[in-house]
Specification:
Elements (H helix, E strand, L loop, with lengths): L3 E6 L3 H17 L2 E8 L13 H25 L4 E7 L7 H11 L4 E6 L4 H7 L2 H8 L4 E5 L5
Parallel strand pairs: 1-2, 1-4, 2-3, 4-5
Length: about 150
C-alpha cells in the first residue's frame, strides 16, 4: 500500500504518538519511514532592544537534532529503513506546513503522519494548528494522530 512514509515530529508527547503510529504503519506496509523536524525561524524584532536570533536558532537546531536522533533510533529498532532530517522555515513566505509539504514531495511520500493536539475554539485560534494548515496544503494523504488528552 505505502512505500514511503513521512512523519513530522517536534518532541511533544503528541508527536511521539504520531511516530509510534507511523512506525506501526511502516512495519505493516514494509515501507521506509522518514522523520522530519521543522525549525520555525522567528522574525527579527528590531524594537525589542538587543536581540540575537542566532542563539534561539542554534538552540532549536540542536533540539531538532536530538529529537531526530531519538526518532531514528526508534525507527531502526523496529527494523525499518529510516532517515531523519531537520529543516528550517524560509522567512520569505514559508511556514511549517509548507516545509512539511516540500519534504513530502522530495521524499515521494505516499502518506504523511502528524500528531494533532485537538485544540478547539479560542485555544486553536490563538495557537493555530500546523496539522490543520498542513491538511489544507497537502497533495498527499494525511494521517492525523490525536493526543490522548486534548486539553
Amino acid at each position: 500500500m505505502y512505500k514511503h512514509i513521512l512523519v513530522a515530529i517536534d518532541g511533544s508527547d503528541t508527536s511521539k504518538l504520531a511516530l509510534k503510529a507511523a512506525v506501526q504503519l511502516a512495519s505493516d506496509c514494509h515501507a521506509s519511514l522518514a522523520a522530519l523536524y521543522v525549525v520555525d525561524n522567528t522574525p527579527i524584532l528590531y524594537d525589542a532592544g538587543y536581540y540575537d536570533p542566532s542563539i534561539l536558532r542554534t538552540a532549536l537546531l540542536e533540539e531538532g537534532q536530538r529529537v531526530c536522533a531519538e526518532a531514528l533510533a526508534a525507527i531502526k529498532e523496529a527494523g525499518l529503513e529510516a532517515s531523519a532530517n531537520v529543516v528550517e522555515v524560509d522567512l520569505l513566505g514559508d511556514d511549517i506546513a509548507h516545509r512539511i509539504e516540500a519534504a513530502a514531495l522530495a521524499a515521494k511520500a505516499d502518506v504523511v503522519v502528524l500528531g494533532t493536539h485537538g485544540r478547539r475554539g479560542f485555544k486553536r485560534l490563538m495557537l493555530g494548528s500546523v496539522a490543520e494548515r498542513f491538511v489544507r496544503v497537502s497533495t498527499r494523504p494525511v494521517l492525523l494522530v490525536p493526543s490522548h488528552n486534548p486539553d
